[in-house]
Amino acid sequence: GNAISANVHPPSQFRNFAVVGLDFYCFQRDPHNASFAGWSGSDPGGFVTNAVHENLLLEDCRFRFYGNALNFENNAGGHLQNFKVRRCQFVDSYDISGHSQGIFCNGNTNWHNRNIIIEECLFDHNGWLELGRATSASSTTLTDTNALFQTWGITAGMTIRNTDDGAGSSGSIASVDSETQLTVTLSGGTANAWAVGDSYCIDTRGEQTGFNHNFYLQQFCQNVTVRNCIIARASSHGISSNVSGLLENNVLVHNSITIFCRANGCTVRGNVILEAKNIHGTNLAGPRGRGIVTGDRTTAQGYFGPLLIEDNIITQKIGTNPSFNPIQVGGNNGSNALNVTVRNNIIYQDPSDRQIFIGSTGLDASDSILVDGNRIQSTSGFRVWSNANPVPAQITYTNNRYLPSGTYRIGGSGSPSLNFTQWTAAKPSGSGETGASEVTISYADPTRSVGSYHGSLGQTATLKAFLATARQQHRQSWNTDYTAAALKAYLVAGFAEV
């Protein structure tokens, strides 16, 4: 069952309560554990609530190997409000047949979740299960002498996928040799190359899907703040937010869609987005590698507000589909994200075929989209692609700095490429952008990564090593070197203009 089920309904209410300093470990769902119960059974939650609560604190706790680590679903006769989650870890959530999240938060049309603060937390590897790591390069026999995976329920013919290889190496399991050894026929990827230490999963055994995220903030939540968190290696979304609130000063690395948000009064500010990755799995599988994506405003929630995307850094995409963009406003089909401002963001050397994509068409007179003061320094793709042709009066471009000799587009696929002069021409032939320039910006050290940061601390210079140490944080041994604030400061310093 669930570790904590806080389901107290009116007239009783759950108030003024704190859960501090506990380690919640669903060990029978951990294939690394000798007591692993196999692939059948339920997918329990960590902290689960479906009731009315006020003034709750969850601090210095760790949740491992649950279905949903933290689950707010308010279907009771009142609001869940004033909930603070601080310095907690939500890691390794997975589900065999359903959906799984690090945090799932949802209300209903009558009762909302509101005033939620999530700060200085670690979200890592939620929504999918890693079964093992390759012990030799390009090997057809995958052996794990540390028994970090169990072969129970794994049979010949299943597909095994390399979840570290951006090219998506995969193979068919030819035989199951022992509890710690699989023989596979490798296929896909670059020269079928699985490097030593690459992780892999088995399709249908907690595989990556497009529905499983580190954060899933669904409808009917208001004033949700996520700040100073490290958000890494999700099945799909780092943060999927359909709610009002603030997403600020987080470091997000190795997520497939890093941030999805709607124009419901949300601000996305000061985040560093690194190494957006592919999805490897059968359910909504396929390359992703997206930075910040906006969706339509959801009128059913009954509250609205502008969407502000500012002062973010997006860099080092490793996903292989060029059609997935660093910043996308509105859908490919012309759907609208209304009253949006995109300003003062840095996009650096992203291999996408469009760096900023404004997909919105058919805007109402009261709608507005402003793209202002961004630094787009990528050699690939269109610097900006504006889907509406001509660019409507409601869309304004100003003061952006583009890498020289780039191309731009106004209109749908097949529309001609434009040079900078054509792009900045007055509407209707151009975008009407004012104050723009094509300039090469020199940065101090823009290729910094989480791995290089860990190396600067005198430790192993890999993302995996950093996250392994960050998972050991607790209040009696809190190391500020493994916080989002310290990591972000190092990464942002690499983008100082010189």
> What percentage of the residues does DSSP assign to strands (E)?
35-45%
Number of separate helices: 4
Q: What is the residue-mean pLDDT, rounded to a whole number? A: 85
- Biggest sheet, spatial arrangement of strands: 1-4-7-10-19-22-25-28-31-34-37-40-41
* Overall geometry: globular
**Biggest pleated sheet:** 13 strands, mixed
Q: How far apart are the termini?
A: 56 Å
**Residue share in helix:** under 10%
Number of β-strand runs: 42
Classify the secondary structure makeup into a structural class.
Answer: mainly beta
Please mark out the parts with pLDDT under 50 across 5 or more consecutive residues, or reply none. none
Radius of gyration: 23 Å
Task: Give a summary of the structure in a few sentences.
The chain has four helices and 42 strands. α2 (450-456) crosses α3.
List the helices and strands and how they pair.
Elements: E1 4-5, E2 14-20, E3 23-25, E4 47-49, E5 53-59, E6 62-64, E7 68-73, E8 80-86, E9 89-91, E10 101-106, E11 113-119, E12 122-124, E13 132-133, E14 141-143, E15 159-162, E16 170-178, E17 181-187, E18 199-202, E19 213-217, E20 221-227, E21 230-232, E22 237-241, E23 245-248, E24 251-253, E25 257-262, E26 264-269, E27 272-274, E28 290-295, E29 305-310, E30 313-315, E31 327-329, E32 340-343, E33 346-348, E34 354-358, E35 369-372, E36 375-377, E37 382-386, E38 395-398, E39 401-402, E40 407-410, E41 417-418, H1 420-423, E42 437-438, H2 450-456, H3 463-470, H4 484-493
Parallel strand pairs: 1-4, 2-5, 3-6, 4-7, 5-8, 6-9, 7-10, 8-11, 9-12, 10-19, 11-20, 12-21, 19-22, 20-23, 21-24, 22-25, 23-26, 24-27, 25-28, 26-29, 27-30, 28-31, 29-32, 30-33, 31-34, 32-35, 33-36, 34-37, 35-38, 36-39, 37-40, 39-42
Antiparallel strand pairs: 13-18, 14-17, 15-16, 15-18, 16-17, 40-41
